[in-house]
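Entry for 1-deoxynojirimycin complex. Fields follow.
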Amino acid sequence: MESKNFGYFDDKNREFVITNPATPFPWINYLGNEDFFGLISNTGGGYDFYKDAKFRRITRYRYNGVPMDNGGRYFYINDNGTVWNPGWKPCKTPLDSYECRHGMNYTRITGSKNGIEASVLFFVPLKTWAEIQKVTLKNTTSEKKTIKLFSFAEWCLWNAATDMENFQRNWSTGEVEIDGATIYHKTEYKERRNHYAYYTVTNANIDGYDTDRESFIGLYNEFADPQCVMAGKPSNSLAHGWSPIASHYIEVELAPGESKDYIFMLGYVENAQEEKFSAEDIERKKNGTLISSQDSDVTLVNKAKANALIEKFSTVEAVDAAFAELAQMWDALLDKYVVKSDDERLNRMVNIWSQYQCMITFNFSRSASFFESGVGRGMGFRDSNQDLVGFVHQIPSRARERIIDIASTQFPDGGCYHQYQPLTKHGNNDIGGGFNDDPCWLIFGTVAYIKETGDFSILQEPVPFDNEPGTEVSLMEHLRISFNHVVENLGPHMLPLIGRADWNDCLNLNCFSWDPNESFQTTENNSEGSKAESLMIAGLFVVTGKDYVELCKQIGDNAEAERAQKCIDSMVEAVKKHGWDGEWYLRAYDFYGNKIGSNECEEGKIFIESQGFCTMAGIGLEEGMVDKAIDSCKKYLDCEHGMVLNNPAYTTYHVEMGEISSYPAGYKENAGIFCHNNPWVIIGETVAGRGNDAWELFRKISPMYLKDQALHKVEPYVNCQMVAGKDAAKPGEGKNSWLTGTAAWMWLTVSQYLLGIKPTYDGLMIDPCLDSDIKEYSVKRILRGTEYDITVKNPNGNQKGVKSITVDGVAIEGNIIKATPGKHVVEVVM
Ligand code: BGC
Ligand code: NOJ
């Protein structure tokens, strides 16, 4: 364990422990891993949603609030007039102790004050549409204590976008029911919605409640001093419109040393049309056991499903068992790749946090974080393909389903929707397509899936175009048209046309926008006759094209493999001829055919993306291009915190380049350290056998090696998308944490290219690239049910090159270990 100013890692429990609630930014975690999700900050902020952060938002969140991160799951304790929260916020009453433990899909926040210790465990049980909050209250004094506990959640009116804009309607629609300890949120349920939410205490009676925000908080009060909490008395309010909330009130008596558990549960239910309403409840409403803000009796919600779940989790034992199941799931997920080395930071990253972040990005794509509002973006085509490469070894069946979903949004010409909505799985028409790197990523994702699982049958899956029934062709055909989409869209230098943008969403070479109300992403004022070409796509095409060729050979289609290889060879030639600037690869040709990312340019002379992908592709390796490009990256892009995206940064707006030149120098795509593409260069370095360089950059980008948590600002346990670059006001300051392709790429880099354990069609390839200081490590890898216990020895401090391999004591030729059932001991000497 290592102590730092705001927190430290507890590796044994796979937790990051925050010891000071006033972190430099809210440090969050994610609850749930399949349908029901929550975001939770270290002070209890955040919200829940079901599947889609926009269309099924369950609790409300205020973005850009003052102070930051207000609203969330709050427990208030009124101890004889002293009012406090276990998570410090919102009251911010100084606590006697505070700790927040962010673990694998759970968070435990514990605070104490005046002899009361309050601990809340937040998690979503597996296969359950509800968040459990297990509250443990303990009297640590030698006297009897009587305290008042209030819970608090604020309902979102389902659509997170209209919830924050359409108040002429919203403030009249809110409806609730109260049934014992359960508060139901049923806005719009009587008409078109088939879902409601509820917040309950499963194992205790309550002594009061509130469902109307204004009655509970008071119009002139704040989250920090709700009038009911301050007065120590609920108002038993019934919401009619305005802002419905759910708050329980419980009077708690604790003998000296006594502790009590209360199980709160916040859930979501869907009912079929014919089962929506409850006739039985009409009587209960008449005799007052049920309270409803609805005028009509016939629309009381059918509570059967909620009641069943409440019953299921009505004991501490049941909750503890569900929590243990969650832990077991993570034990199994994190058992597929385990490294043991004498670098505890490396172990921590590989064995815990990198894999955890990959699960989160797989689930959320770029939708919901404290930087992504959850209302703007669905699942990205390229993003999801990259994410699944970091996740496929965890639950291959979910990766399989995802590949089919993604491919189903492709168009017959190989182009594809840039995004799709998780609820409908349909392409997003507002954004459309035209990002010419997108198709290549489908090959990237599919190949990774087959190499992990050996499941070639996915290639025969019928997959439609644009989700149109009747248009199905095999997934393999989708891969073919993906490959062809590049080949059929070449520009004057025989390099790939960029379209709206390539991986870099902000390199908008056909946009030409002078209107701030236009979207850089979708505007094409100058698309006709565009000649803008991308070297990033060229490199990506060669990397994924080689994968495609290998796949064709695997399935015995040698003619197609040969055809494809020719296209790749031509692309390599085109890059060498028109894409090499002398010391590095060019980035692009603009609309007019002018160079971008050339020494001839005044700003933006060199870009990271084309260096990353063209070196990864090994283009011009023999001619020394790979080494030269890496040297140039080190010379012009590198700094203390990693490599910036481009250099020199743009200082003025270039209409012919678009959004990239809109950012101030040093931020985001304009010379920020875009963590996502640093691993590309690391992999390029491994292609050139430059282990020391590769590990140096790796340690700059992995948050495990962070030196200054305060400067980094965002969570020190996961990668963020961007760290401010050397031209920024505060180099080293991180932004946009959690949802970034960096997660999958860092995983791929460390697991396959640095530690060098790579799934192939036949088994496992062992090809490490090491820092000369690394003398030995071992990896346990479970692939397709076979366990490999691999020890790598590097007595001479080499950077690359396997000398010998024995499998179960027998020496093998080459560096591929055939996949055979059972358990194998593998010894590798470098
Ligand atoms: C950001 C990009 C992002 C894009 C998505 C831009 O403003 O800088 O990182 O990919 O928006 O639409
Ligand atoms: C974030 C987007 O999600 C991703 O698709 C894109 O490649 C990068 N930004 C770079 O622009």
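NOTE: The two ends are 32 Å apart (CA to CA).
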